[in-house]
Amino acid sequence: MPLSSVSLHPPPALPPTSNRSPPPVSRLPRLTRRRSVLLARAGAADMAAPAAASPSAPTLLEYMGRAGTPADLAVLVAHIQGACKSIAALAASPGNADLSRAKAAGSGAEAVAAGRDAPKPLDELSNEIILSSLQSSGKVAVVASEENDLPVWMCDDGPYVVVTDPLDGSRNIEVSIPTGTIFGIYNRLVELDNLPVEERAQLNSLQSGTRMVAAGYILYSSATIFCISFGAGTHAFTLDRSTGEFILTHPSIQIPPRGQIYSVNDARYFDWPEGLRKYIDTIRQGKGQHPKKYSARYVCSLVADFHRTLIYGGVAMNPRDHLRLVYEANPLSFLAEQAGGRGSDGKAKILSIQPVKLHQRLPLFLGSMEDMLELESYGDVQQKVNPGYEV
Ligand SMILES: O=P(O)(O)OC[C@H]1O[C@](O)(COP(=O)(O)O)[C@@H](O)[C@@H]1O
């Protein structure tokens, strides 16, 4: 669906102001200055409230300037940032439910035949938004996206290669559950420049995760969070809706070495191997290396489950062959490692797995170092039975 054909319904008209009785002024709580500033920043303050203080924390663009991010890379990230603001607006718009519904039966057959899920209109729109902003950055040679069977070649002398899942968890949009965009950035392999374009595109996109120069995700939730690593720590920026800027709110995130939360779709318990069942049974009962009973949290939206794990610690997993190595597991593992955590397929570090196919799937485990090592010590944690589940 082209972007121009999306019609967002106008908001319902409010009754005229004069018909509504004014609130009893004397009962209005007085806003503290801090609250006023926060409300003003959120664009929600009463006009008479004190003006927002200028935030001292840097914006994403200022951060990249201060950190000495190469200019071409900063331009590229600035374009991703712009695209994600548009996706955030679409995901939160009154038209989002229509955009999240699968198209007529039979559509998306090509994607399904290629081992991908049938895309929803919002997946396709998000892909279009990301691709066009990467194209206009002028910095990208090739993009490998979940929504395209093959990598898209953009520009022969673009210095970077981008891998992306433009909108993960789009099945959740209709019920306003968080979604996210994931991306990874590599240098273009100049030694491949003389190969035919299809081969060049493919090999550039299948680089090992160890060669990533930057990776990030954008979480579309109650706040829109842009989390990124350039290989020197993991940092998260929160969208300030009054200025349209992403403000540094979580510098140098350190995932706690041990958490108390596990995140998995445990309706699949009976399809799990013995090792994984034992691990989950053990930590639930507080009988593991950490003598606390773990709690379960599962949003079923990869970026949201990963974001919570990054901040609170613990483990987030999908033990069956479902998530994609190139544009989901690799970028999130890079961010986890940069925050002191670990990403694995249950046996090996994700970043050390050489991709062989663009849409390659694998079991994915992400989280706190101590929790991850304990989990892996059970050996048999990859779910081999994968019947495909309807929901
Ligand atoms: O059905 P499962 O195994 O719980 O998988 C859920 C996972 O799949 C995803 O929805 C991604 O799958 P899709 O690409 O089909 O949307 C993740 O957001 C989520 O973590």
Task: Specify the overall morphology.
Answer: globular
Largest sheet: 8 strands, mixed
CATH topology of the largest domain: Fructose-1,6-Bisphosphatase, Chain A, domain 1
The total domain count is 2
Oligomer: single chain
Computed over alpha carbons, the radius of gyration is 22 Å
Helix share of residues?
A: 25-40%
User: How large is the share of residues in beta strands?
Assistant: 15-25%
Number of E-state strands = 13
In N-to-C order, the SSE pattern is HHHHHHEEEEHEEEEEHEHEHEEH
Bound molecules: 1,6-di-O-phosphono-beta-D-fructofuranose
Number of helices: 11
Report on this model:
This protein has 391 residues and is α+β, with helices and mostly antiparallel strands. It folds into two domains: 60-250, Fructose-1,6-Bisphosphatase, Chain A, domain 1 (2-Layer Sandwich), CATH 3.30.540.10; 261-376, D-Maltodextrin-Binding Protein, domain 2, CATH 3.40.190.80. 30% of the residues lie in helices and 20% in strands. The protein has eleven helices and 13 strands. The protein has helices at 33-41, 60-66, 71-91, 96-100, 109-113, 121-137, 197-205, 274-284, 302-312, 325-338, 369-376; strands at residues 140-145, 152-153, 160-168, 179-187, 214-220, 224-229, 234-240, 245-250, 261-263, 295-296, 315-324, 342-344, 361-367. The strands form two sheets. The chain has an eight-stranded mixed β-sheet, with helices on both faces. A five-stranded mixed β-sheet has the order 10-9-11-13-12, sandwiched between helices. Strand 1 (140-145) and strand 2 form a beta hairpin. Helix 3 runs antiparallel to helix 6. It starts with 32 loop residues before the first helix and ends in a 15-residue tail after the last helix. Mean pLDDT is 87; it is low at 1-54. The protein binds 1,6-di-O-phosphono-beta-D-fructofuranose (FBP). Residues 117, 168-169, 171, 265, 300-302, 305, 318, 320, 322, 389 line the site of 1,6-di-O-phosphono-beta-D-fructofuranose (FBP). This is fructose-bisphosphatase. It catalyses: beta-D-fructose 1,6-bisphosphate + H2O = beta-D-fructose 6-phosphate + phosphate. Keywords: Carbohydrate metabolism, Hydrolase.
